[in-house]
Amino acid sequence: MNNSSRERILDGALELIRSGGTISLASAARQVGLTKPGVMYHFPTKEALMLALVDRVMDGWDAQMARRLAAPPEQVPADERLRAYLDWCLSGGVDETDLVMLTDQRLRATLKERWVARVAPWVDLPEDLPPERRSRLLAVRLLADGVWFADAAGVFAPDQQERAQVRGVAEALLAE
Fold this sequence. Notes:
Helix 4 packs parallel to helix 6 (about 110-125). The protein has helices at about 5-20, 25-30, 35-40, 45-65, 80-90, 110-125, 130-155, 160-175. It is mainly alpha-helical. It contains 8 helices and no strands.
């Protein structure tokens, strides 16, 4: 089987999440018109499939945030990476699939671990920051986290005016 089958499986599984479906190897196979063994060729276990879904979502986040930077993420200061994270979270480009790490109770710890490892380069703060600056940057991250979670969960998502206000508060915190 070729790589396009793998991509079709991932796309189909994300669509299942988006539509409120439950992910299993069998449901992913049905979604894309393959057999369960056909899915298992690419993802031998449900855990492998779910981890690949976390990576797929985070690859999209990485690409979107990296476009907002003048240099590779590892070469820019924490406040610039955090600004890119804030901008991405305020963009409204998230949906239920961004919560993939929470979709399977039995795998939740493993999926969250992968998600944390993938998002940490964007939001981790250097230990040597002065406490006041660190607190401000943490507040910016928590504002951004709140907006993306509201959007992804579809609960109390801010409208455009509220997003602009949140951005203003966050920019003030970043500037100080």
